[in-house]
């Protein structure tokens, strides 16, 4: 027990410092003055150096050799600490610090290149990021597959070959459904000008409706919406376009799903390895089920329609049914974060294939824009008109998140499984959503998934919640039923 207690005390301080590093990242993407970027890069590198030293402290190995956990929770903590210790000892401190420095600089440079529609200006930095991540993957890989080494940072236990096979199995049904939907009569659109202040006021209202706790959270603006933090400080961001209120409102609901996962983890796990979501796929299952199966349901949009009319007056649609169709309008578009449920996974599959090729060395960074544009035209039937609608639209590659993208589609698969299980267990979910009250749904998700944090592996987490191994069938069946109804297929 003394070894276990000493190890957990060390880990608690490391987790606290990790929270400080996260806050630096939140600040950089929300309120940091642009001129501070070079200094922030040095600060992030210094913090990463401190964290890397703590995560590779030789005493951790000594403690792990003799530590005895008092219970199953302690066993899970030891498992996660051992995995982290093994991983971090494979990555040189110099490389960890350099990655933190370069990706901090890269984020700001990407934002400028995106605003300027200038891919060429950003390519030298992106080349540097990819080279560093390939070096890190080479240090981590145990079986020679560089991409799998990076993927496991975000989805422990997953591998690219299995995900690729799942995507290949899903693609024909998604492509067929999309073709039938796009050939049908288009759904209506909301119309008008939607004031920023009113959008933000309504976004706070829907955040509360889905259970976001503002005592331990806040909403700010960012170029790319995200959620940050865990435990008792969990922040989200959104963005506003005055001609597109759904950009703000559904980004908010999406990030609330992430944030509620973190806020609802058992407080006894605070500042331990169990105190965060177990994987990005499971995390994404929460944001996607909040946004889509709940937030875009006919029950919730019936209530939401009244809220929109109260906030903005005439919005160009005249019935709850038309509003439901407008919220779920399917069309071939450029932007992943704005994609409907039918097209979304196809956006992910494109990115998955391209980043696997980048890490494998089969695709040069200098050829990435052309490869993106060719693949997008083939997959979506439209030509990319500008870089911000193409290869520069996402922040992930600029900040080094190679291996992250497939977890979005995996999260959709998990969400499909959870939605089926939740509706079987809680038949009155829609009755609450129709009143703008998501409590029945969020309580089930809290108890089935969120409170457990990192206690189980990702697949075990979903299997424990649903009673079955996860697979794509519930998601595909849900999409086919929903969009067949919406478009009278």
From TrEMBL:
List the taxonomic lineage: Bacteria, Pseudomonadati, Pseudomonadota, Alphaproteobacteria, Rhodobacterales
Q: Which GO terms describe its biological process?
A: proteolysis
Q: Where is the active site?
A: 255
Q: To which protein family does this belong?
A: Belongs to the peptidase M32 family.
What does the function comment of this entry state?
Answer: Broad specificity carboxypetidase that releases amino acids sequentially from the C-terminus, including neutral, aromatic, polar and basic residues.
UniProt-listed SUPFAM superfamilies: Metalloproteases ('zincins'), catalytic domain
Report the superkingdom from the record.
Bacteria
Cofactors demanded by this protein: Zn(2+)
What range does the record give for the signal peptide?
none
Q: Where does Zn(2+) bind?
A: 254, 258, 284
- Cofactor details (free text): Binds 1 zinc ion per subunit.
Protein name per its UniProtKB record: Metal-dependent carboxypeptidase
One annotated GO molecular function is: metal ion binding
Q: Catalytic activity, per the record?
A: Release of a C-terminal amino acid with broad specificity, except for -Pro
Keywords on record: Carboxypeptidase, Hydrolase, Metal-binding, Metalloprotease, Protease, Zinc
Q: Give the EC number(s) listed in the UniProt record.
A: 3.4.17.19
Q: Which Pfam families match?
A: Peptidase_M32
